[in-house]
Structures are given as structure tokens and as C-alpha cells.
Amino acid sequence: MTDFAAWSRAVQARTEEALERVLPVEAIAPSKLHGAMRYVTLGGGKRVRPMLAFAAGEAVGADAVRVEAAACAVELIHVYSLTHDDLPCMDDDDLRRGKPTCHRQFDEATALLVGDALQSLAFEVLADPGLGLDPVVQVEMLAILARAAGSRGMCGGQAVDLDSTGRHLDLAELEFMHIHKTGALIQAAVLLGALASGSLAEEPRRRLQHYARCAGLAFQVMDDVLDAEADTATLGKTAGKDAAQGKATYLSLMSAREARAYAQELMAEALDALTPFGTRGARLADIARFIVERRY
Q: Which structural domain range is residue 129 located in?
């Protein structure tokens, strides 16, 4: 088995190539919109969600071509959410993935349309009949992605985030927000990667969902820590923005040391959920460790 660094680079490269294929080229009208879609999607990002999809696919023996479609769909939803989150009406940010945000590079109207178009493209990719999946399974995958992206998932979490700005949240309220805002799409990445196998029994599904819940919370804990401790150049986005805007974060409830310890607890719980998968769950375990140990 290749080491995690080599594996993650391979997945990132494969995802980049796949996204390059599914995104409309700039030469096709409307060229400005298509160019902006490619600007925000290609050439950056950790691709954690595609890595989760591929790792979950490996855990259950899914076909890699089908996993690739799931990985692209989840990443397109993620990039759409970042594009909209950066808008002045939301987080009003100037930098994403080390370059100007979409509304700064183009304009606000284009950024809004980019997000809308990427969301539509995600479902088009996942609905491709050429994937050869059982239609019942494919419809379930579409439903999982829709719920993860909607008001009971990512959009709902963002709404809670906006409403809570300047207010104190307790740990339960904070985790409710992050289970939806960040965790829902992380869970979708894991489930879609596994369902690319064509089926998923109840017990493996339950364990993968629990793994994803813990990994998703750990991801947000470390995001809050890094937002406070790392610099803008390292993060590729504006550092310290959450604190400056009065947003509820883990560091508003605990020290950075306590937050790191909590992330370690979540990682241990995620790893425990993978026990029945044995060596097939090794990549998911690697990602859980990466989430907690990353520096950007």
C-alpha cells in the first residue's frame, strides 16, 4: 500500500482531471460564467471530501470510476458553498485558496451564478446514466446529496451561523451548527463513496456515518484553531476572520489546547468506528489523522 501522502496526491490529481472534464470550457458561451466556474474550482483546495469518497469506496470495494463521479459531485457542491459564503452578504471575504474570491476577481452577480451553476452541475454528474448503477441506488445517492446541501444540512448550518453572529452558543448549539454546516457534506462524501459499490448494509452504513460525524466535527475544531493560530499565507484565506466578526467558534468555549485535545478525542472515536473494516478502512483512518494534524 502506498503511503498516505502519495495516495492523497493521486486522489487530488484524479479529482482535478475529472473536474477539468466535467466543467464547461471557457470557449463555450457564456464564456465569462464558464471561466469563473473553472477559476473557483480548479487548481486549489485540499480535496478532503473527494479523498473521503475514495477512501470510503476502498473500504467497501466500490468501483473507482463510480466513486470519481461521487467525489466530483460533492466537491462541486463544496466549491459552490465557498463561493457563496465569500459574498458580501455572507462572510464578505477577499481571499480563498490563496487567490482573490470569485466576486473580487469577477463581480458579485457572476459569483452568485457560479454557485448556482456548480450546484446544478453536481447533480448532473451524479445522475449520469452511464455510471451503470442500480437506478434505486443512484436516486438514493442524489437524495443524500440534496439533503446534505439543503436546509437540513449545509445551508441550514450556514443560516444558524449567520443568525448566531455576536451571540454566545453553548457546545451543544455549536455542534448542531457544525454537524449541519460542515458535517453534512462530509457525511455525504463518505456515504456516496460507499454507495458507489452498489449497496451498503445497515451496520457498515451506521459505522461510516458515525466515523463521518466525528471526522466532520474534528475538521471544524481544527479549522477554528488554525483560524486563530495560522497566518493568511498558510491558510490561503483570511486568518482571524471569525473572531473579528464575532462568530461562535470552539475557541469561544475552550482554549486552543483544550480544542486540540477535543479533536484528538473525536479522532479516536472516528478510528474506533472503523474497526470492523480492518485494513480496508486504512485510508479513512489516515484522513481522520490528517484532519487533526494538518497545519492549513
A: 4-293
100 has which bridge partners?
Answer: 95
65, containing H or E segment: helix 64-85
Number of Cα atoms under 13 Å in the Cβ half of residue 54: 24
| Main-chain phi, psi angles of 100, to 5 degrees | -55, 140
Q: What is the DSSP letter of 24?
A: P
Question: DSSP strand E in the chain: where?
Answer: 95-96, 99-100
CATH of the domain at 261: 1.10.600.10
How crowded is the C-beta side of 210, counted as CA atoms within 13 Å? 15
Query: Per the structure block, which three cell numbers stand in for 20?
Result: 477539468
pTM: 0.93
Burial status of residue 203 (CB atoms within 10 A of its CB: 0-12, 13-18, 19 or more): exposed
121 by Cβ neighbours in 10 Å (0-12 / 13-18 / 19+) ranks as buried
SS3 67: helix
H or E element, residue 209: helix 202-229
Q: Is the dihedral of CA 227, 228, 234, 237 positive or negative?
A: positive
Q: Domain total for the chain?
A: 1
3-class SS of residue 100:
strand
| Tens digit of each residue's pLDDT (9 = 90 or more) over 49-96 | 999 999 999 999 999 999 999 999 999 999 999 999 999 999 889 999
